[in-house]
Amino acid sequence: MDPILAEPLTSEAYAPFGDVIQAWTDPSSAPKDTRVTSANQGTAHKFHRLSRVVSSYPEAVSDRAICGISVFRSTPVGAKPGEDWRVGLLERHAYTSQAFIPMGNGRIESLGLDDALKDIGRAYLVIVALNGSDDRPDLNTMRAFVATTAQGISYHTGIWHHPMISMETPIDFACVETQIGDPGNVMDCEIWEFKEEDVRTVKVPAF
Questions:
Q1: How far is residue 187's CA from residue 184's CA, in Å, rounded to a whole number?
Q2: In the prediction, which pLDDT does 105 show?
Q3: Cα–Cα distance measured from residue 151 to residue 130, given in angstroms and rounded to the nearest whole number
């Protein structure tokens, strides 16, 4: 089977799977339905509601499903610019959207603020697929995107995706999601491991 070519992340291309969270140098370049206003006494542009936080946990557990912000320190797993990378599993969150927003690498060691990464990579890989009629990933819809660390992403509820794939160096991500939080709770996260014949290859462009 032909490799899946990872393409540059854009709001338009990614729309079936979720939202792109970023600022634009030219505010008029933002997606046409994005409201952009001046903010903070004219010192900022605000790009409104780039992504919504959605939760649909059943009523029986809704009081245990809490929306919060976590941080993932994501280390590279072998995906590199200009090389192929094998995809052997996907996961989904059936009752919540999930957003990942890269964090910076600022360190001020003289003030003791030295927990940030010393270096932050330029990019990470996003791999997604729609749900099929058999309630499994529809591998015919699998797409791959190269995102820069100036872009965040969200997954719509129930979208199959690979866990975060940092390239080049570790990346810290702020993660916004709703979860019960019990280890192994499939309502929070369901993992689908591929049979060998279903393994796909993603071709990462050189950059």
A1: 9
A2: 83
A3: 22
pLDDT tens-digit map of 7-60: 999 999 999 999 999 999 999 999 999 999 999 999 999 999 999 999 999 999
Structure confidence at residue 152 as a pLDDT band (50, 70, 90): very high
Q: Which amino acid is at 24?
A: W
User: Residue 9 and residue 123: Cα distance in Å, rounded?
Assistant: 10
Q: Of 93, 99, 126, 100, which is closest to residue 4 (Cα–Cα)?
A: 126
- The Cβ of residue 178 has, within 10 Å, a number of other Cβ atoms equal to 22
C-alpha span between 160 and 89 (Å, rounded): 9
Note whether 167 and 44 are within 8 A (CB). no
Q: Which helix (H) or strand (E) holds 14?
A: helix 11-14
Give the pLDDT band of residue 82 (cuts 50, 70, 90). Answer: very high
Question: Bridge-partner residues for 162, per DSSP?
Answer: none
Averaged pLDDT for residues 145-161? 98
Strands 84-87 and 66-74: unpaired
Cβ(56)–Cβ(173) below 8 Å:
no
Beta carbons of 138 and 129 less than 8 angstroms apart = yes
pLDDT tens per residue, range 93-103: 999 999 999 99
> CA distances (Å), 178 to each of 30, 73, 128, in order?
27, 19, 20
